[in-house]
Amino acid sequence: MNEFLDKCRSAVGDSYVLTEDTDMAGYLTDWRRRFTGKALAVVKPRNTEQVAAIVRLCNEYRVPVVPQGGNTGLVLGSVPDNSGKAIVMSLTRLNRIRAVDTVNNTLTAEAGCILEQVQNAAADAGRLFPLSLAAEGSCTIGGNLSSNAGGTAVLRYGNSRELCLGLEVVTAQGQVWDGLRGLRKDNTGYDLRDLFIGAEGTLGIITAAVLKLFPQPQAQLTALAAMRSPEDALRLLSLAQEKCGATLTGFELMSDFCLQLVAKHFPQMRLPFPQRYPQYVLLELSDNESEEHANATLEALITDALEQDMIQDAAVAASIAQSKALWALREHIPLAQAEEGKNIKHDVSVPISRIGDFIRETDILLQQGFSGCRMVTFGHLGDGNLHYNVSPPEQSSPDAFIAHQEAINRVVHDSVHRFGGSISAEHGLGALKRNEIRRYKTEVELGMMRALKQALDPLDLMNPGKVV
């Protein structure tokens, strides 16, 4: 492979083809540090033309390609396997904001742009790019699109797919498809854009995207409500949608155990209530009229919810600092889990109306099979996406508990399927769930997915071993 690597160096520059173990290390281990793969090299192109040139070389020499953005994925989708045959193509040097059009309300960004960079560019133009998630300071827009990332504002704005109008893609053959159209209506055949969004780099490599922008809200208000059960949270969601309409942009469910973990490992963070409640909802309104209108809307919602016995208490942020403190409680749940020790994560979705039943029934099944396990249940209730995580019993061996991961996954995923849900809501399949999904998709659906893969990537060089 020396000849192949020499040609890669000619294409992108010597210093951007990494082959030493120490130089490649950060690109080969997944975000959760559960797996480290091997690679022939890490290649870092500067622009779309260099991406295409490297892919053409990979075709010539039959070298697999693992596209990688910020490497913040949780399903082993952006790291290579342990064969050492593939290159990792890091897209972080493709980091230009190419254009901002405030009349068309669009922004064109290269795939290696950090999500926070896109948010800031939109804000500088007086606009909002609403995709928001915990890793926004390190994840890239190409990775967001490749995994169809969701985040906290899906309820109002949709996930990454809904926020993208057009793509530039390097195909598996090293050709460049220029689909950077800022059109909201384009009914001219198959929607090729949607093929690549959510495909996790298995069909081609996203190099740039046209993204939707929105007006900056005049006011954003945050509140934390306490309640007895997920069913009460669903009642509050229905009331909030009725009272607030499109101003409701965030609706996050968190169990008491989630916030107790946060308090345990981050004692500087405190709940605004004098007592504990079984469940909490963090909700946010984004109002395009005025702060007074937003306050009146939120006050009316909370008053009605208290009168109808949906909630037991509520705290409304009176400043930006207080709002950030409430959101910090939610954002620190995964960090607190990590501090607590090993756990078994699930990123699932079920129909919103069935979330309460799913939580109750699945909790019972897990306690029957794995007595004492602790449920860390939180997520985006407004769009049906739960992070339904399972921690070991207190004072038990974490490694012994993790040995039951396959059996626990089976309980959870079978329950998700029984409730008409999905075993991956926003993280994707990657290598972690590639085989698992075969239990829940029909052969017809899997067959169509395989046909697409074969048609677009017949040599199976694009992120092999992932998704399908």
UniProtKB/TrEMBL annotation:
SUPFAM superfamilies (UniProt xref): FAD-binding/transporter-associated domain-like (SSF56176), FAD-linked oxidases, C-terminal domain (SSF55103)
FAD-binding PCMH-type domain residues: 35-216
Domain of life: Bacteria
Essential cofactor(s): FAD
Flavoprotein keyword on record: yes
Annotated GO biological process: respiratory electron transport chain
GO molecular function: catalytic activity; FAD binding
Keyword annotations of the record: FAD, Flavoprotein
Family (UniProt): Belongs to the FAD-binding oxidoreductase/transferase type 4 family.
Name of the molecule in the record: Hydroxyacid dehydrogenase
Native source organism of the sequence: Noviherbaspirillum denitrificans
Lineage: Bacteria, Pseudomonadati, Pseudomonadota, Betaproteobacteria, Burkholderiales
